[in-house]
């Protein structure tokens, strides 16, 4: 009897010590890719500022004609509700309207915002508006494409905080994936960039160029601007395959242009096995990768990016110490791993 009792006691202890943690771990929900990125961003911003302050924060994005910036607008507004601040998002009418974007910023400076979060069309167009905001005591956060810091300082202004992604790394990730797909056989490749001179376009192009030009067997035959425009990219892609019939891959500096390139080549019966990769992982790109229409995209969490920008703005308003720059983590999403990112935001 004693031996039997000892056996059951031992079995019970084994189940408590060894099996319970396993069952508990299995019961926990796995952390999503979006949550992982948000946690990485928020660690850079610790400690958190005071929330639910009701502060008014103005946001100026590039254009709501681009679905990426529509996503950012939604992210900012959702973060404002979550953190108890008032958020107003404005934009230029088109990707290249630098004058209208500055005029919009100047109008925003006249309002009673505690902070402004700015994403410029190009590095210099918002400099006068930044200086005007500084003079009114409005904190200025630069999100994404850089405002030229040297020009701001020469004009007597400052940028109070910066949050961005590593644009060169985006280009490197996309080009590295293309290179790995091409393998030792290599081949001809091309880049479709956005607006020449725009920070995100130049960074992504530089990163892709670096990989292509340093990979044996790969020949970069063309770098063509399409100004972030779907119709322009459609025509550029068509012209590329006509000029370079042996072209094997195109890296595009955003998803809108990548999707246009895929449509263009498909319409001309030139898609074949050509590899097309974009950047931003917008919802349309997600569905296109799942359907096999697009080969890949460089992803980063738009909701997390918007949340982090609002937190950074609050920290500057409240006088917290902040990092020199906050960087959003990146992920390469392809046909091979798309199932892990179907719930990604």
UniProtKB/TrEMBL annotation:
Top-level taxon: Bacteria
Signal keyword on record: yes
InterPro entries per the UniProt record, alphabetical: Peripla_BP_I, SBP_2_dom
Pfam families cross-referenced by the UniProt entry: Peripla_BP_4 (PF13407)
Record keyword Signal present: yes
Molecular-function GO term, any one: carbohydrate binding
Subcellular location field: Cell envelope
GO cellular component: cell envelope
Domain (Periplasmic binding protein) ranges: 57-320
Key words of the record: Signal
First-listed, main subcellular location of the protein, grouped into a coarse class: other
UniProt similarity note: Belongs to the bacterial solute-binding protein 2 family.
PANTHER family from the UniProt entry: D-ALLOSE-BINDING PERIPLASMIC PROTEIN-RELATED
Designated name of the protein: Sugar ABC transporter substrate-binding protein
